[in-house]
Amino acid sequence: MSLKVTFFQRKPFEFQFSIETLFHALRKSLPADIEQKVSISKYESKGLWKRLYNVWEASRKQGEINHVTGDVNYLAIGLKKYKTILTIHDCGFMRHPSALARWLLKWFWLKLPVQASEMVTVISETTKADLLTYVNCDPAKIRVIPDFISEAFQPAPKQFNQSKPVILQVGVKPNKNVERLVEALQGIDCHLEIIGKPWPKTLEALEKKQISYHWQANLTEEEVVEKYKECDMLAFVSTLEGFGMPIIEAHTIERPVVTSNLSSMPEVAGEAACLVDPYDVSSIRQGVLKVIEEETYRTSLIEKGRENRKRFAKEKIAEQYYQLYQEIYANHRKNKDRLIKV
Predict the structure, then answer these.
(1) Residue 19 CB coordination number (10 Å)
(2) Closest by alpha carbon to 22, among 87, 74, 76?
(3) Does 341 have pLDDT greater than 70?
(4) Domain Glycosyltransferase subfamily 4-like N-terminal: where (predicted)?
(5) In this predicted structure, what is the pLDDT of residue 339?
(6) Cα 24 to Cα 167: distance, rounded to the nearest angstrom
(7) Within a domain: 287
(8) Closest by CA position to 260, among listed 243, 251, 304, 97
(9) Per the domain annotation, does 153 fall within a domain?
(10) Residue 249: which of 158, 170, 321, 166 has the closest Cα?
(11) Of 22, 32, 14, whose CA–CA distance to 152 is shortest?
(12) Do both 133 and 183 map to the same domain?
């Protein structure tokens, strides 16, 4: 007997496909007894009326199990609670500068959707702890199921260029902390490769600190993979991350990683990265230099990365979701049978 699961996805804005790519790959790894249906919202998540329509539309497309896959959390409000799973990737939007926006996001992206769901999945223990500061629910209702590595990322060993290493920076949003990284790199003979279009003040800092750099934006997944292959190391010293996928991507390509000692990054990196204080420029600099100058240490990070990436294999993550779908359906059937007997 097959179990019908409907995956509810946002209509993404241009170049916004990370969640969609993730769950497309996940669905391919689910067992054959899961009958899959994908419901994409008619409208982008923008404005009151379009969002209300998206909720109404979702309410008419429910399956035996509903899975709201992220970013359109409010869709859960229109679904039947006993068969709805909500995935929350992070709570970073709660740092919005507007108090009114934070209030609306708290209620319609967190509190009400969590109340309307039978189970919530998050991608890290850090995100779970963050979520519990905004919602009042049994922690057991929130299950950690991490992201997984795309099959596009495969091991590609490379001789480390110690004389002038290429350092990869993924992302340019304020939490990515690029300007402190730039300051830390001043005087180090290296080349900084940036994925994303840097902010004007970041470009100004790069020029002022005389850092060799290059940036590209709107890359395909294949182009991103090439950037990892071409680099010698990853610097990912964010101040906030719901997960920190670049860490695992670098581990898979077999590149050493310097990352932050806070938020979700130590959880994701394990012992396979050089952890630094992202608010301390000298700490970032010392971490980068340690990886560049100490071959034995650098090699140990790569070896530990090979082990760490096994935790995030797609098949392992798909199995966790499969078991969750079975659990939700079994609990519903058990409760339904109990009511019939009464």
Answers:
(1) 18
(2) 87
(3) no
(4) 74-149
(5) 45
(6) 30
(7) yes
(8) 243
(9) no
(10) 170
(11) 22
(12) no
